[in-house]
Specification:
The protein is an alpha/beta fold. It is built from 19 helices and 15 strands. The two termini are 20 Å apart.
Length: 564
C-alpha cells in the first residue's frame, strides 16, 4: 500500500507530506483547492506524462516521492528490471522534474528510466480518473476489458502469431499482384539498371586502386624527376660517383685494418652493412623508375573510368560494393517478377493453410472470451445490484468480424437501464451517473484479479447523488477491506465512509497561493462534512447531521469487519 506521498513545488503545493493509512482514505476540499494536483503528483511519481507547467511558478524543479509497503518481491516489473523491495517489503519511488525538461527517476535509490518507473508503478497503484467512465463509450475498448478479465494472453498470443504469418503472406502476394502496365514498366527499369551495371564490369576494391593510379599519373613528371634525382644520388651518373660508390670506397679503405682491433672490425662491418642497404635502395629506385610507364593516353582512360564510377555511384550506391549489392537485388526482383505467376500459385496454397490456422486460433480465442464473458456478466451484474442498479441488465455481445490483430470478435457491452427495455449499446442509453457506476463495477472486478494494492478514484462520484451515492460509498468501503482505497470526492456520503479523511485547503501568504493537506480528527470531519453538505453557511443542524452520518458510516464499517 501507499504509505507516504511527499510533494515539492507541484503547482500550488509548495511542500506536503501525506501519510495514508490502510483501508479507505478520502480527500475533500473546495473546488480548485488542489485535490486533483495530489492525483497529478501520484501520476508523476508513477511514471506518467508530465510537463513544465506542473512545476510551481518561480521554482526550478519539482520533486515527488512515494513510499510503498508490503510490496511483493515477485512483481514482474521488479524482476524484469532487477529491483527488489528492502527486507521489510518497502519500495521508494522518486521523480525529480526540472524546468529544462530533464527527469531523474529512482527506485530504492537506484536510477531508472521513466518507462521503467511507469512499468513498476502500474503494478503498485491504479488511478481511476474522473473521465474514465467515458471510456465505456468507446466500443473498441470493450474487448480490452474482457481480455484483461479473462486473462486471454495465451490464446491471444497464439492467434496473433498466426495472424502475423498470414499478413506476411498477404503482403508478399500484393507485391506480386501489381498492375500489368506498372509491372512492365518496373521490369523495363530493372533490365536497364542491370544492363548498365553489368556493362560497367565492376570489381570490388577497384575504385581505391583507380584513384591511387590517377593521382600518380596526374603527377607523372614530378614522379619521374624525383626518381631520376634519387637514382643519380645513389648510383651516380655517366661519370660515376654516387652514394653506393662512395660507400664502397670507404669499405675498401678500412678493409686492410679491420683485424687490428675489435673497434675497427665493428666499424668495417657497419660500413659494409650500410653499403648493402644503400645498394638495395638504389636498385629499388631504379626498378620504380623503369616500371613507371607514363603516357597521357592512360591518364585519359583512368579519368574516364573514375567519372563512370562517379555517375554510377550517384544512382546505385556510395561504393562499388554497394552497387554490386544493388545489382544482386535487382536481379532477384526481376527474377521474382518473371516467375510471379508460379510464386503466386505457391503462396495461394500457403495462404489457405495460414487462413485455416488463423480461423482455428480465432475460434479458440472466441471460446475463451465467451467463457470469460459469462463470468464477467455475472460479476458486473452483482456489482451493479450493490450499487443500487438492481434493474439494470448488463450483457456482452459477440459478433463475427474479419480477422484483425485483436481477433475475429466484435465485442460490445450492452445494457438495459429499465425493466422491459431491450439491451442496447451503453453509449446510446447510459447517463453520466450510470457510466460512473458501471466503470466502478468494472474496475472493482478487474482489481480483484490484479496484484495492485492501491486503488485511486478521482471524483468517481461524478453524476451520482442521493441513495446511489450511499451505495457507491458502501462499495468503496467493501473494496477497501481488501485493497487500499484513496478517493477524491465532493459527496458527504463517501467522505464519511472513509477510515481516514484529509482536507485539501488553499490559502494565501505574502501574495502567493499555497495548498496544504490536513489530516482531520472527528470534530474537524464533522465541520468538513457540514461544509460539503451546506456550503459556507454551516449550521448546528448540519453539524448534527454530519455527526449522524459519521456514526452510521462507522456502524457500517464495523459490520464489514464482523462479516470478514
Amino acid at each position: 500500500m501507499l504509505e507516504l506521498l511527499h510533494i515539492e513545488n507541484i503547482a500550488v503545493i509548495q511542500e506536503a507530506d501525506i501519510q495514508f493509512a490502510p483501508g479507505f482514505n478520502a480527500l475533500t476540499g473546495e473546488t480548485g483547492a488542489g485535490k486533483s494536483i495530489v492525483i497529478d503528483a501520484m501520476g508523476a511519481v508513477l511514471g506518467g506524462r508530465t510537463s513544465r507547467d506542473l512545476i510551481r511558478t518561480g521554482a526550478a524543479r519539482a520533486f515527488v516521492s512515494a513510499q510503498f509497503s508490503g510490496v511483493p518481491a515477485d512483481l514482474p516489473g521488479l524482476q524484469e528490471n532487477g529491483i527488489a523491495p528492502d527486507e521489510e517489503g518497502s519500495l521508494l519511488l522518486q521523480r525529480d522534474i526540472s524546468a529544462d525538461g530533464r527527469n531523474v527517476c529512482r527506485i530504492n535509490g537506484r536510477p531508472v528510466s521513466v518507462a521503467q518507473l511507469r512499468a513498476i508503478g502500474s503494478e503498485l497503484l491504479n488511478i481511476h480518473g474522473q473521465h474514465d467512465g467515458t471510456q465505456l463509450l468507446d466500443e473498441e475498448r470493450h474487448g480490452e476489458y474482457l481480455d484483461r478479465f479473462g486473462r486471454t494472453e495465451g490464446p491471444l498470443s497464439a492467434y496473433r502469431a498466426a495472424y502475423d504469418a498470414m499478413e506476411a503472406l498477404r503482403r508478399q502476394m500484393e507485391a506480386l499482384r501489381m498492375d500489368e502496365a506498372e509491372k512492365a514498366r518496373r521490369m523495363d527499369s530493372l533490365r536497364f539498371q542491370i544492363d548498365e551495371l553489368e556493362r560497367a564490369q565492376l570489381v570490388p576494391g577497384e575504385e581505391e586502386t583507380l584513384l591511387e593510379r590517377r593521382s600518380l599519373l596526374r603527377n607523372g613528371e614530378k614522379y619521374l624527376a624525383a626518381l631520376a634525382g634519387a637514382d643519380c644520388a645513389l648510383s651516380g651518373g655517366d661519370e660515376g660517383g654516387g652514394a653506393v660508390s662512395a660507400l664502397r670506397d670507404a669499405e675498401e679503405a678500412l678493409y686492410g685494418v679491420r683485424t687490428l682491433s675489435e673497434d675497427l672490425g665493428n666499424l668495417y662491418e657497419r660500413l659494409k652493412a650500410a653499403r648493402c642497404e644503400v645498394y638495395d635502395l638504389a636498385e629499388s629506385v631504379r626498378d620504380k623508375r623503369e616500371e613507371f610507364d607514363f603516357s597521357p593516353g592512360e591518364l585519359d582512360d583512368v579519368e574516364a573510368r573514375a567519372d563512370q564510377l562517379y555517375r554510377l555511384k550517384k544512382k546505385y550506391g556510395a561504393t562499388v560494393e554497394d552497387m554490386l549489392a544493388y545489382l544482386d537485388k535487382c536481379r532477384a526482383e526481376l527474377d521474382a517478377m518473371e516467375t510471379a505467376d508460379d510464386t503466386l500459385i505457391r503462396l495461394e496454397g500457403q495462404m489457405k493453410a495460414a487462413r485455416a490456422a488463423v480461423d482455428a486460433a480465432g475460434a479458440e480465442l472466441t471460446k475463451v472470451r465467451q467463457a470469460a464473458a459469462r463470468v464477467l456478466e455475472e460479476r458486473i451484474q452483482r456489482e451493479l445490484r450493490e450499487l443500487d442498479m438492481a434493474r439494470v441488465r448488463f450483457a456482452i455481445d459477440f459478433a463475427a468480424k474479419d480477422p484483425s490483430p485483436d481477433g475475429c470478435d466484435a465485442i460490445r457491452f450492452l445494457m438495459s437501464a429499465n425493466a422491459g427495455e431491450d439491451l442496447r449499446p451503453i453509449a446510446r442509453i447510459a447517463s453520466g451517473g450510470e457510466l460512473a457506476r458501471i466503470m466502478l463495477a468494472l474496475k472493482n472486478v478487474l482489481a480483484e484479479q490484479e496484484s495492485v494494492g492501491t486503488l485511486v478514484f478521482d471524483e468517481v462520484d461524478t453524476g451520482v447523488s442521493g441513495r446511489a451515492a450511499q451505495k457507491v460509498a458502501e462499495k468503496l468501503a467493501q473494496v477497501s477491506r481488501h485493497k487500499q482505497v484513496l478517493c477524491v470526492t465532493h459527496l458527504p456520503q463517501l467522505a464519511a465512509m472513509a477510515d481516514t479523511h484529509f482536507s485539501v485547503e488553499k490559502g494565501e501568504r505574502d501574495g502567493r497561493t499555497y495548498t496544504r493537506v490536513v489530516l482531520l480528527d472527528r470534530e474537524a470531519r464533522k465541520a468538513e462534512l457540514a461544509r460539503i453538505t451546506g456550503g459556507a453557511n454551516v449550521t448546528q443542524a448540519l453539524l448534527q447531521s454530519a455527526g449522524e452520518l459519521l456514526d452510521a458510516a462507522e456502524r457500517y464499517r464495523r459490520n464489514l469487519e464482523a462479516q470478514a
